[in-house]
Structure formats: structure tokens, C-alpha cells
User: What shape does this take?
Amino acid sequence: MPEYFQDRSSIFADESVLVEEYTPDELPEREAELTELGAALSPGLGTGRPHDVFLQGKTGQGKTAAARFILDEFEAEAADKDVDLTTIFHTCAGQTSSYQVVCNLVEQQTGENPNGHPKRTVFDHFYDLLNDIGGTIVLVLDEVDAIGQNDLLLYELSRAKDNDHIADDVDVSVIGISNDGNFLAELSPKVKDSFRERRVMFDAYDAEQLRSILERRVEKAFVDDAVDESAIALCAGYAANDQGSARQAIDYLYEAGEIALRQGDTRVTDEHAEQAEAKVDRRSVMRSIEELTLQDHLALVALVVLEAHGETPARTRRVYATYRNVCAEIDANDISLDRVRDHLKELDLLGVTQYTTRTAGSEGGRKYFWELNTDLGATIEVLDSIDRLDGVMHLVR
Ligand SMILES: Nc1ncnc2c1ncn2[C@@H]1O[C@H](COP(=O)(O)OP(=O)(O)O)[C@@H](O)[C@H]1O
Ligand SMILES: [Mg+2]
Assistant: This one.
């Protein structure tokens, strides 16, 4: 009989603690942020309306976890004080307009999606639902940056009461959460106004904080003594040096456990942590490369061609010439040099390319020198898997 199953119990005790959906039961590293949040919500415990709050910080900083945590605490406190409180948690990821978000909110409450009806009707329906629920309502809109800067959802909601959409005896407050640090700053002034006084910033975790977050996970997720202290510190350190993201640190740890298991070891060591970091990073870069647009891919192929031939760092003009060849090979429309430079800069933000600039003598302009920032072999592998690029990848070899 072939072995279909593996026994994971030599390393893992409870893997559910390591997955994205798990909500931790304590967040001591976010004590200050939780205190600010609690203060903003406090008027809702019998003396007024909870304040609108905006949580901001890069991905993996515990914003979602903190919001879920404080809502639970707030519900318990409200029950204690006989306050009629309802909380609604909604994730806006993948929704590109307030219309979509409100349709989904209605569906969340009623089971039916009003998509297709006029915008005003849908909003009115939603406000009716809120009025029916009554009492104090806290509405959390997680990843609200998904709907874009020009959308007035937050403004609408924060003004709903003034506009008589919400009954006098109903209190609705909004907690907006964004992974995009510039989201609030770039919103129109009237939206900013409603959140001006209440913004809670989530800064990147440092290595020490990440280590204690991991320690607590290890205790629940792994068999006793299955993970070396130094391996935990390594996972924390890697993540701190990169984005300071708890998600990233937990991913390293989980992968390190997988690797130890696969290699038949009963302890997770530094070597496993090292291998895990390389593997997880590679996976995340590869995922972001896969999701790029055609023009990004073409610009990237051009740079990869130069890199494969040892011709980087290369000036934009050089990359552009190669890019034109690449386009010609597969009959793709080519765009201007300036726009290709913009695409290369976007790739830099994703960690795929990197550049240095030099000021060009008497002309005073800036020259860009480009190179690949990801592993060449792995990048070629991903590009090879994209059908549209079939006709150009021979240029790389
Ligand atoms: N202080 C913390 N203690 C324990 N786990 C944390 C802490 N901060 C973040 N996490 C965990 O890290 C992961 C990312 O956190 P999350 O709240 O999703 O971040 P964000 O919403 O800012 O992107 C989640 O699995 C979360 O449970
Ligand atoms: Mg989140």
C-alpha cells in the first residue's frame, strides 16, 4: 500500500492557529492602539454615540485582529451595561465602489443582493435595515481602500444622520480600516473631517514584538519543545527586516515547520527557518509577478533578457530598446519610453526591480539604471508559465 497520508503530530499540535482566519485572544503589542480604540467607542456605552475611527497601517500589522478583538470586548461591555449594541464587520477587499459595498452589506443582513437597483434605492434600503436594527450600531469597513479615493462611501455614512436617513434614536458609527498609508490623506477634505480627531496608526512591528507574537503561537500550534528558540528569533528577525508584518513572521514559522516535517526532523531549527524564508518570499514575489498586466510583463521580460546576459544595471533607454524587440516578437503594441519607465518603477514598488539614479551632467536630467531585484531563475520560471509570453522567452536564453 502506498503511503497517502503523513503523520504531522510529531511537529504540529494545532495548525488552525497558524492560518490567516485565526483571531488571537490577546494582542499585548497593540495595548496602546486598543486603548485608543476603546476610548473612541466608549461614548456608546450609554452616554452617546461611539466616535468614527480610522485605523491605518501596512498589511500584517494587526489592524483586522485589533478591530475584531475590540468589537468582542465592546459587545461584552455593552451586554453588561444593558446597551442595545449591534456590530457589523465587513471586508471591502475586491469591491471597487460604495455601490458594491452597500449591496454586499444588504446581502449580509438579508441574504438577498439588490445589485442592479438604482444607487439611491440600494442606500435607502440599507438605511432602513439599520433603522430596523436600531440602538447603537458599529459598522466596521475593513480594507476600505479597495473602493478607491474618489468614492464618497465614508462621507455618506458619516453624514447619514444629518441627512435624516438614520432615525434620531439610532446611533451608527463607522470604523474604517486601510492598508494604504496614504488613503486618508488623499481623501477629499470633507471625508477627512469626519475622522480628523480619531485616527489610530499601526506602525510596523519590530523584531522583539514579532518574537513575542510568535512565542505565543508556537505554544498553541506546535508540540512542546518542537521549535528552537533561535529559529523563532530568526523568523521574527527576517520579518522585522522586511515589512515588520506579523502575517509574514507567522508564514515563515509555519513553513519552517513544514520543512522540518518533510525532512523527517522532529525539531524546527535555524536551517529550517532559513529555508522557509527563501521559500515564502519566493512564493510571494512570484504571486505578485503573475498578477501583473501585459505591459508590466513585457517591461519585465526586457529587463530579464538584459539581466540574463549580464548587461544590468541598464539605462532606461537600453531597457526600452530591448522592450521594443520583445513587443515585436509577439506582436504586442509598444508604449512610449516614459511609460515603460513608469512600469519599471511600479515593479520596483513590488520589489521586482530596483534602480539607482545619476544626475546627467550639464543636461541636469536624471538617468535611471535598472536591474532585477528578484531571483533570476525563479522569475524566468514564472514568466515561462504565462501563455501570452510564449513567443518571447527564447530571447532570455
Ligand atoms: N499583536 C499580535 N498578537 C498576535 N497576533 C497578531 C498580532 N498582530 C497581528 N497578529 C496576527 O498577524 C496576522 C496579520 O494580522 P492582521 O490583523 O490580519 O493584520 P492587518 O489587518 O493589519 O493586515 C493575523 O494572523 C493576526 O492574527
Ligand atoms: Mg487586515
Summary: The first strand starts at residue 53 and ends at 56. The chain has 14 helices and eight strands. The pocket of adenosine-5'-diphosphate (ligand 1) is lined by residues 20, 22, 24, 27, 29-30, 57, 59-65, 179, 202, 213, 246-247, 250 (CB under 6 Å).
